[in-house]
Design brief:
The complex is a heterodimer of chains A (307) and B (378). Chain A contains eleven helices and two strands. Chain A is mostly helical and 307 residues long. In chain B, strand 8, helix 9 and strand 9 form a beta-alpha-beta unit.
Chain lengths: 307, 378
Amino acid sequence: MSLILFIEQLLNGIQFGIMLFLMSAGLTLIFGVMGLINLAHGSFYMIGAFAAAIVAGLTGSFWLALIASLFAAAISGVLIEILIIRRLYRRDHLDQVLATFALILLLSEGVRWLFGAFPLYLNIPSSLDGSIVLPFNIIYSKYRMFIILIGIIIAIGLYLLISKTRLGIRIRAGQNDRQMISALGVDISKLYTIVFAIGAALAGFAGAMIGAIQSVEVGMGEPVLILAFVVIIIGGIGSIKGAFIGSILVGVTDTLGRIFLPNFLKLFMDTANATSMGSSIGSMLIYILMASILLIKPSGLFGKNEK
Amino acid sequence: MNKSTIIFGAVLLMTSTFANADDHKVKVGMITTLSGGGSGLGIDVRDGFMLAVKNNKNIDVIIKDDQRKPDIAVQLADKMIQSDKVDVLTGIIFSNLAMAVVPATVNQGKFYLSPNAGPSALAGKGCHKNYFNVAWQNDNLHEAAGGYANSAGFKNSFILAPNYPAGKDALTGYKRFFKGKLAGEIYTKLGQKDYAAEIAQIRASGADSIFFFLPGGMGIGFMKQFSQSGIKLPVIGPAFSFDQGILKAVGDAALGVKNTSQWSKDIDNAANKKFVNDFKSTYGRLPSLYASQGYDTGKLLISAMSKAKITDADKFRNELRKADFASTRGNFKFSKNHHPIQDIYVREVIKEGKTLTNKIVSVGLKDHSNVYVSKCKM
């Protein structure tokens, strides 16, 4: 196993983590600020990807498609928040889980009804096709490098938004004490709508970016959603910083685990068993990681301590 | 239970006996995947089957969605057998669902005609006189891919498939026929969409060819990312990642890929031409191999119905065994364990105008049966 291959896999892990971050940032914000468990978050990922595929098909421009994904997800986020989600904040978590699960079914069937059961086509722009050569002769996909850069820019942007702007102050205040900030005259329901839209837009954007290298199909968001929940539990619910570090941890652990475990096991057993067993354990690794972090820090890496 | 429910039950029973009185009629229960991941396959099988039986007044079809969940498939099968009184079940796409439904169905004396799933367990020891597979035994297309790799002169293949029974069957099937060495062998997570890590391994492995079995959306992701990576190695796979429903989503990344299939829209025979034309004019899209399997299943059923009554199970079974119908695949026979003996073709992905589709380049395996025949005691 050469060092170059290791670094390439490390980059793959980071890229996977960045994508998870876009999903989990919104999820953790929504949970932190509104106390809402939103299972339908994966649907915005799907909506973003479908909007991008449609716009790319009509205009031929990937960049317009990316912008469309942001808007489509944000607008549907606002609509869904006003029509449905708003009624759930005061309800208990079981009601929220049931209602947002119903939303998954409605949105998936709605998208299938509109666009059919077959996957849509969305590809990366030709300017990002191919690979670049990094220092030490590491060959890496341009598009994946682009995802990493965009993800870091968004992470910095979110950090500045939360720590330096008035909206950020309100969001943080909302996380700490909901009743108090509404008593101080902040329009809490508008704040909630904005936070929900930001979360939805980030998920939709991730869907479009990833849809271009994977597939745009109904139900594409749910597997990612499960990982996003793992991330916010590891990072500590409500913490953007936790979501970022958790995402990278999960991404790198998953990628390196599934590649290096089978190779490691080959030292002890024959190839067929090692590959099959290695990949089985590899897919459990992130959950083992989650369990061990929860053992040491029950509220996650950056979570507020439970009372 | 009070008296009125008993009477109600008795009336129900009587009406259902009356409904079955006309023994020229056959009631078909179709359990297939119509929602969620993999629904494209079920929709094609359904449409192909319905096209075949469209003008036949003696066939009643009940169609239900299994949502790709074994427990739901079992419930549907129980309901269809017990309350709908179907004679024949068909439709299941995925092997794990077939394993949950087929044994119980055939043990209750019903026929099961598989339009897709062909797990090795139902071909070998678990074979049954009432179970017929009209598509293939799971290993077949992968075996043909291994055979093709030999004839193309590949010596060092990198192979990958998802870590589940059909994935293991796939790699086993390939290795059974491939004579070269393996540069690497990877089992991926089922449902995995991102293959950056695997592609990096392939790049570093020094392989001269790649064989992969990644059905549905998994294959779309792999082909796109592989083509974006700039690695120029020949790729071989079974038709499952290159069928008509998927090619559109893969795009030009699939061009030139060799894939193995028992069916292709350019197989030159009258039945196939009629099927392709009828399918296009009825549904407004090109048929896939799944649609052809559904269609052949329908035609097989009609061929047996024209010679025997379903109430005479032994005679009906014998007529099914003869497979006396014009298959879209041309030559089609059943082996002793009721799986097809057929040609497996090597196809290449090409562009016809703006549409991506497949064209036959050679016959991979002629009159190919399966290795489990000897294990089947029937």
